[in-house]
Amino acid sequence: MAELDIRPSGITIIVIRGPDDQDMRLPGLFLEVVPNRRLVLTDSHVTAWKPSAKPFKTVSVTAFEEEAGTTRYTALACHCMREDREAPEKMGFHEGWDVCADQLTDLVGTICPAHETGESVMPANFVWYELMTTDAKAAEGFYSKVVGWKAQDASQPTMNYTLFLAGEIPVAGLMTLPPEACSAGARPGWVGYVGVDDVDACTARVTKAGGVVHVPPTDIPNIGRFAMAADPQGAAFAVFKGLTEMPPPAAGPTTSGLVGWHELMAVDGEKAFGFYADLFGWTKADAIDMGAMGHYQMFKAGGDAIGGMMTKPAAVPMPFWTYYFQVDAIGAAMERLRQADGTVINGPMEVPGRSWIVQGVDPQGAMFSLVSTTA
Q1: What structural domains and CATH numbers belong to the chain?
Q2: What's the pTM?
Q3: What digits encode the pLDDT tens for the residues 12-33?
Q4: I need a labelling partner for 213 at 20 to 30 A (CA). Which of 29, 84, 249, 276 fits?
């Protein structure tokens, strides 16, 4: 509960209820008010500038800054004495503010329109994956052997195209890089498509937020409309709107061939999350402390976590997305990978959630990842 008169010298009364159902009443005054930018208040004085008997924080500063299409919220509390600072720390205020901010983000996402452009209020999820490579036939054989996909021709008059299926479920596509793309420096790689309601409006927001559109909104006859882009830090992704309603992403952590995780190595993980949160409505899930490597921030698209992102190590030359394909067992899949002339670059490694992962490069040079609940 709170009573706020938001103007310089205006009173503020905040009531905090603890887990024991006891209320703590915190009166104070606003010292500075800068609309949409900054609030400074003190509890060292109360109404009519009367000194407080025992200030809780003394001075607090709340700042709001625009960042990659989102708002960075910063709260700073200044205390008179060290013991005054340590008391709220022991009460869990640091962790509590983080939890409250995440809960507020999730709540706003459920009750407010995501964008004035008419974009769906539902968070956008990955709906397709595509490998563009220099030797499609060789790649078809490699992934059929390693992941266990079934290949199915889906070519059109002007383009050869292959579908990868997990059982009867279409999961990904395969095509040859055009010569002009190779001449421009394109290399084999996987790209993930995020399903959106309006490709044109979405790409306009990409540009406004500092991203780059590599392939402008383009129609695929009888299929839908897509665009390819890169975030402000350079990681590539695509957006897609089908002519028919896209089914929800197939789930099942033990089903071989499905995509089980999406991972972004960014130049700045926090800024990258801000970009994608604004663009697709993603919200934060748990974060894992990686020690000197920083934090691994998992994210959600309306349900359970679907991926994670972090600031890349300095040794990694550029930001990128990687997609984890589920396999029967990591050890067996890694052996198939090597037998098919692929290269293991990381793993096998056990990760939180009792899963095992391997990261590799296929014979044409495209990076990919594998995940399994079985070692």
Answers
A1: 2-91 (3.30.530.20), 126-372 (3.10.180.10)
A2: 0.68
A3: 777 777 767 777 777 877 778 8
A4: 249
